[in-house]
C-alpha cells in the first residue's frame, strides 16, 4: 500500500515538473530559456568541449540519440499499445460502417452508430491521456537539452554544417519560416534514430 502511494506521488511530481517545464519555456520567455540553457551547460559544455566547438552538429546528433532512446523507453512502458491498436481498429471500422450507412441512407443504422459514438469518444479520450503523460515525462529531459542547444548556438552564430544538395549553411539561418538549420538537423537526426530505436524495442505500429 505504501509503495503504491509512493509510486502515485512520484508520478504526480514528475508530471508536475514536466508540465511546468512545458509551460515555463513559454511563460518565462527568452530569459527563462537562456537560464535553463545555462544551467544545462554545467553538464553539456564539457561534452561539447570534448567533441570540439566546430562539431556542434555531432552534439546535436548525440542529443537526438539521447532523446530518441529516452522517449522510446518512456513510451514503451507508459502506453498500452494493445489498447491503442484496438482503439484505432475500432475507429476505422466505425467510420467505414457510418459512411456506408450514410451513403445507403440507412437511418436506423446511422442512429444506432451515433449512439455508439459516445463510447468511441471515451476510447479516444483514453488514448489522448496515454499520449499526453509520456510527453510530460519526455519534456523533463528533452526541453532542457533543447534549451542548452539554443543557448549554445546563440553564442556561436558562425557555426555551420554542410548539407547534401544545399552545401555549407550557417546553423542559425532559417530553412523555412522560423525553423533554423540546427533545429532542422536536430529533428531529422532525431527522427531517424527514433525509428531505429522503436523498431529495436518493437513499439508503435498503431
What's the quick description here?
The chain is mainly α. Helix content is 80%, strand content 6%. The strands form 2 sheets. A two-stranded antiparallel sheet has the order 1-2. The protein has a two-stranded antiparallel ribbon with strand order 3-4.
Low-confidence stretches: none
Mean pLDDT: 79
Tally the beta strands. Answer: 4
Shape: elongated
Strand order of the largest sheet: 1-2
The SSE string, one letter per element, is HHHHHEEEEH
What is the count of helical runs? 6
Distance between the termini: 35 Å
Please summarize the sheet with the most strands. Answer: 2 strands, antiparallel
Give the fraction of residues assigned to helices: over 70%
- Class derived from helix and strand content: mainly alpha
- Cα-atom Rg, whole angstroms? 22 Å
Strand content: 5-15%
Amino acid at each position: 500500500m505504501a509503495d503504491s502511494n509512493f509510486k502515485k506521488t512520484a508520478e504526480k511530481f514528475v508530471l508536475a515538473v514536466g508540465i511546468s517545464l512545458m509551460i515555463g519555456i513559454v511563460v518565462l520567455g527568452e530569459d527563462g530559456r537562456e537560464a535553463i540553457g545555462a544551467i544545462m551547460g554545467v553538464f553539456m559544455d564539457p561534452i561539447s568541449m570534448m567533441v570540439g566547438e566546430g562539431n556542434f552538429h555531432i552534439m546535436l546528433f548525440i542529443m537526438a540519440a539521447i532523446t530518441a532512446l529516452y522517449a522510446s523507453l518512456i513510451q514503451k512502458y507508459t502506453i498500452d499499445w494493445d489498447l491503442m491498436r484496438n482503439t484505432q481498429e475500432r475507429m476505422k471500422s466505425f467510420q467505414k460502417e457510418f459512411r456506408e450507412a450514410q451513403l445507403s441512407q440507412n437511418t436506423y443504422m446511422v442512429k444506432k452508430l451515433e449512439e455508439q459514438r459516445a463510447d468511441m469518444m471515451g476510447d479516444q479520450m483514453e488514448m489522448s491521456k496515454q499520449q499526453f503523460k509520456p510527453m510530460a515525462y519526455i519534456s523533463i529531459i528533452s526541453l532542457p537539452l533543447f534549451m542548452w542547444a539554443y543557448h549554445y548556438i546563440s553564442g556561436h552564430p558562425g557555426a555551420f554544417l554542410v548539407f547534401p544538395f544545399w552545401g555549407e549553411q550557417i546553423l542559425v539561418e532559417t530553412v523555412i519560416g522560423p525553423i533554423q538549420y540546427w533545429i532542422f538537423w536536430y529533428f531529422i537526426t532525431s527522427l531517424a534514430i527514433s525509428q531505429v530505436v522503436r523498431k529495436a524495442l518493437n513499439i508503435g505500429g498503431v
